[in-house]
Amino acid sequence: MTTSPHQSTNPTSMTTDATSTSQPALDTHESSHDNTRRDTHKGARGNMHGKRVAILATITGIIGFLLAIASAVLPVQQSVATIDWNQNTQPAGITSPLVSYIPQNLVVTLPCGSVTNAPQNTLLFSTVPAKSANAGSEGMQIRRAPDGTGTDTLSITSKSHLLFAIPVSELEKQPADCRITTTVRADAGPSDPSVFVTATATTFAMSTADSDNPKTDSPISGELATDSTTRPQVVGFFTTLPHGTRIPGLTAHMVVDTRFSTSPTPLKTTLMVLGIVASLASLVMLWRIDRMSWRYRRDSHTTDADSADVASVSKPGVGVWVTDAVVTILLLVWHFFGANTSDDGYLLNMARVADHAGYISNYYRWLGSPESPIGWYYSILQALTRISTASPFIRIPTLLAGIISWFIISHSLIPRLGAAFRTNTIAYWTAGMFYLACWMPLDNGLRPEPIEAVLFIACWALVERAIANGTLLPGAFAILAAAFAIGAGPTGIMCLAILFAGFRSYWQNIRMGVYTLRTAGEGSEGSKGAGKGAHKGASKGLAIVSIIFPILATGFLILYTVFADQTLGAMREAVRVRTEIGPNLGWFEDKARWIALFGISPDGSVTRRFPIFMMLMILGIMVFIIARRKPIAGLSTPVLTRVAGISIGSLLLLTLTPTKWTHHFGTFTGIIAVVGAIGAVLMTNRGIAVTRNRWLAAATTVAVTALAFTANNDWWYVSQFGINTTHDEQNFPTFCGKAISTWFLGLALLFLLVAAILHFFPSIDHKLSTTSKPAIRKTTNWLASKPIVLAVLSTFVVAFSLASFLGAYISRRPAYTVGSANMEALRGRPCSLADQVLVEPDPGRWILHPVDGGSLANALAGTVRNGFQEGGLPDSIDDNQTELNTGDAVETPDRQNHKIPPFGLPLDVPILGTYRPDNQVSAHLVTSWYRLPAQRDDSPLLVLTIAGTLKDTAVHVEWTTDDLTAPNASTSGTGAPSTDAPGTGTYRVAGRLVPMDPGPTPSWRNLRLRRPHDIPANATAIRISVDDTSLDTDKWIAVTPPRAPQLRTLNEVVGSTDPVLIDWSVGLAFPCQRPYHHRNGIAEQPKWRILPNGRNVESANSWEDTFGGGPLGWTDLLYYAENVPTYLNHDWLQDWGALH
């Protein structure tokens, strides 16, 4: 092939031959002789090394690619943990809860003759404490007890399956070396038993399980061997043998499941470092290829419509920089005062325990399996927690991601849309507000969506740069960004839409690179006249692989993070565990995400709906514009088409995520910003020429906004504190007594009316745009050309969110808000909610004493006691707050009996109630007077514990200001003066008040009054008055004596050293409390549990329970949880959560 000096050398329109090629001529646009000489010199120097570059690129790319693949199978070092127990030396047993619930291997050995040393009705061995409610159904037990016929029997059970039973009398006849061994195996084959019992040196046959040849004369009963469904859970080794009793030879040996506790070997570390260096070197080679092909790219750009205007991109105007400044400032403001996301505590505590665990486990679910194959981002959090766990600090990566994302959008993506955007200040402003409207409710926490979003945006910008410049290196970096986005979280899969949308154009870059390498050495001075020994370019095959393998090596760099300290087998096991336990929803179940978005909850709040609804609406307009196949002046059609393809492709790829939460929409931040800018231009006379249609589009936009506002202004957990969800008895945000959605709907109808008028009277538009009155004409033309509707609506939503949180911060001071906690962290007090929750550590200590010096029981019975009786409570209370855990492994009172005082009150504290199973009577109670202690700063409340279904108005607290030390001469209510001795008389009631009731009914709860706000500082005594006039059997009330507790902060009571089970939804609010550790498959025993408020406690319990493989699966077997009375300082009725 030959080329003329004026012929384009675009590889898309040329054919190549392996044996006959010619060097493309320089473009005739080069007019400078000096520049031509310099270009020729550079080309010659590059061509002389073209084949060498191809070889180096191939070698480094192959090494990097193969070693990345090999990292999945390179050897690792696995920790091995075993536990040995001997009853003779450890009679009390040991507690070792397994994170994986089930051991890798467990062997329990019992000498036959030693059984007689144990008393009857004794549990010799158990993997779950005997007092646990689920000891038999979850654990393995070896027990000596009479069977159904009364025969003294040794029985072995596993998860309520009888494995082995034999009369003790038969064991007494066995030889001294007789042993009964129970084995549990996790690695049993499909046809092998997982739990089985064997006996050695016995005189009886072990064949009762052989159904083909049973031994009818065998004394053994039971299955002897079972499958994996009966493998017992292990939280330790326990026994109920009396103190001093020994069973010689009773031993247990357990191998803990530590398959995920691995570290890389020196060989693996060395090869991974080599692979990373090789991959980076291959990228350098791609850069060299781009340098060699720059002349051809320059020529091709003169004919490439997709990149022809790249050189015309102007510098950002003042309006762009103003938008940049506003977005950056608002991101900073929101970082400190805005809402966080739902899983922040989840990820924070995963990162906090990772150092001790040796790997990043899923801590709250899935049996402690690692986050592989995703989770490299959590390693950044892990490193940051070593410095500080304060919310403003730990969320710095999110803040940086937000700022970087916006600057990439404003300075790279939006200019690519076309000339209509580059100087359009309103379009930039709209993009910025759309960006914030999405970022603020979805991306201000520790979840991976912000990281995925910035990588998604970077991938997009790199693809556009590769297309615009015709280079290979940006495309390789785009693949790298996509790979790390997928490695950061499941929604990173959306990056595949970008790669697919840009592949066709990027393929031309690859062809150009191949052409460059193949033509290297031709036409250079060093090869002229050299004849047979002339240096030729790379062959076609070498040229192709020298480009493909560096790109592959770049994309597979993510594998070095995935398999840094584990193998492919461990990753597959982690995926299997998560898949089997779930949630693992299919693509066709993605409707759950949209149902949640339309629900009334934080998942479907106003601020989450708006950006998504707007994106879908504008996307519909874009598809319509593209389908018309009519170019719009100033808008790049190829780029617009790619934006639509990326948006639709991302929505489709989102269906492949295994979970369906609305917070996954946080990855759409870049799409929403770009689509917002496009919508701003399309809704002007550039995109919609007919004025009537523009008004219809405006009406649709406002109507969609109205639909978004048919939801609550809901946020997650503590972010909701101070944010009203009900305004003027309406569930939706209101303005002037009307729902904001109604106002927007009215505005939409007004716009529709204008459109209808223009439809029936089209001449109006012409008259307004051509009128002789300048003001009307300019206003009409300005409205037609300026995209103000989207800008105003998006700005309103952003202002609505800011006003909600800044207003809460200002109005609630000094009460807790997210903003106040972050401000305190900047002042060096980073403990957040732990400094605001006040704890009553010893409730019984602060019960008020009767003025007359009598007993607490007599004082509670008081002067009037009609219908109240001791034990006047139902046998059970429908209570989902007071007692959340059912384990009872430690010695505690029978708290499941609701007639026992709650909240750690003394067992002898009096309780009077009105409940009767039948013949309910009207009841009235007036207690004796209780002496009030002196007012103290650490005793701001008067507390009364009650239960029942009656409203709080049934209870009144009355107080007196009389002198309790002098003879009382006040009236008794009948007008006659009282002359009782000091402390024994009737006192004048100075006031009465209904205490605050936090609910819920009918559970035990603490009514409260503020001192001195509700009860005056000069009050000397109080008494309680209760009225139950209802005769319904389901209407009742129970009361205990009042108390004036001295309170301490949760941070003082729990501290920062005690191990705590911090539920996943509260972790970020308690950064100073230490989450319990786990290492080598064994969990540390927590002393406390911190739960979220009633709105979120159900999701916390269900996520962490046995079915999910979470910590409640073993804490419920070990502990009884008792609710400790707590109160949120300065916001006494706020349900912040609970401390157990």
Automatic annotation (TrEMBL):
Residues 1-46, 964-984 are annotated as: Disordered. The chain crosses the membrane at residues 53-74, 271-289, 318-337, 393-414, 426-442, 477-503, 542-563, 610-627, 639-657, 663-683, 695-711, 740-761, 782-810. Residues 1-25, 967-977 have a biased composition (Polar residues). It holds the Pfam family Arabino_trans_N. It comes from the Bacteria. Residues 27-42 have a biased composition (Basic and acidic residues). Residues 803-892, 902-1139 form the Arabinosyltransferase C-terminal domain. One of its GO terms (cellular component) is plasma membrane. It is found in: Cell membrane. Keywords: Cell membrane, Cell wall biogenesis/degradation, Glycosyltransferase, Membrane, Transferase, Transmembrane, Transmembrane helix. Residues 263-760 form the Arabinofuranosyltransferase central domain. Its main location: membrane. GO terms for biological process: Actinobacterium-type cell wall biogenesis; cell wall organization. Coiled coil: none annotated. Residues 77-259 form the Arabinosyltransferas concanavalin like domain. GO terms for molecular function: arabinosyltransferase activity. InterPro entries: Arabino_trans_C, Arabino_trans_C_2, Arabino_trans_central, Arabino_trans_N, EmbABC_dom1. Belongs to the emb family. Arabinosyl transferase responsible for the polymerization of arabinose into the arabinan of arabinogalactan. This is Arabinosyltransferase. It comes from Lawsonella clevelandensis. The lineage of its organism: Bacteria, Bacillati, Actinomycetota, Actinomycetes, Mycobacteriales.
